[in-house]
Amino acid sequence: MFMAILQHTPLWVYVLFFVLLILGWMQSRDRLVPYFRAFILPCIMMLFSIYGVVSAFGMSIGIVAWSIGMMIVLALGIRIRVFYNAVFMEEHKAFAIKGSWLWLALMMIIFWLKFAVGVALARQLDIVYEPWFILSISLCYGLLSGVFLVRMVILWKIKSIQVKH
Question: What pTM was computed for the model?
């Protein structure tokens, strides 16, 4: 059955998987990231996440669960020091960001969650119509996306604080 799933998976899914692997690997290295570009990947991953909810479940209660997950992680995440691993360098208009494998792990979790839901939808499994399934999957997407939102907020805070001084 697993081979049948892989054989019927569209080519663009494989391309997306490898693009995410490369982007995640790049996040694992220390780097200098221009101000604007530092916000692109988190925005894309949040859009990919909300797309996962809407494409699987439509405009339903899932969006509320996704939003709740985002807000929970935002409320907790801005207090976690591990996310403050960047310095804004005014002379370069860029962030010096310490590498972390966390971002690759989050990208892969979102990808595989979306893949698993896609397989369940393609196989027309009854579980995808259960309210508890919709709410739990949507909440998971929101919790995972919330980490990317936290990253954006923290980068903005770092820049604001460092530029004022």
Answer: 0.84
Task: For residue 155, give every residue at least 6 positions away whose Cβ sits within 8 Å of its Cβ, in sequence order, or none.
Answer: 38, 39, 86, 88, 95
Largest interatomic CA distance in the chain: 60
Separation CA 87–CA 85 (nearest Å): 7
How far, in Å, are 44, 55, 114 from residue 107 at the CA level?
11, 18, 11
Identify the CA nearest to 144 among candidates 101, 100, 104, 107.
Answer: 107
Sign of dihedral through CA atoms 153, 158, 160, 161? positive
Indicate the SS3 state at residue 1.
coil
pLDDT in tens, 78-136: 888 777 889 999 999 999 999 999 999 999 999 999 999 999 999 999 999 999 999 99
From the centroid of its chain, how far is CA 91? 30
CA distances from 87 to 59, 126, 134 (A): 39, 48, 39
What is the phi/psi pair of residue 97, to 5°? -115, 130
Q: What's the alpha-carbon Rg for the chain, to the nearest Å?
A: 18
| SS3 track for 3-28 | HHHHHCCCHHHHHHHHHHHHHHHHHC
- What angle separates helix 102-122 from helix 40-57, to the nearest 10 degrees? 20
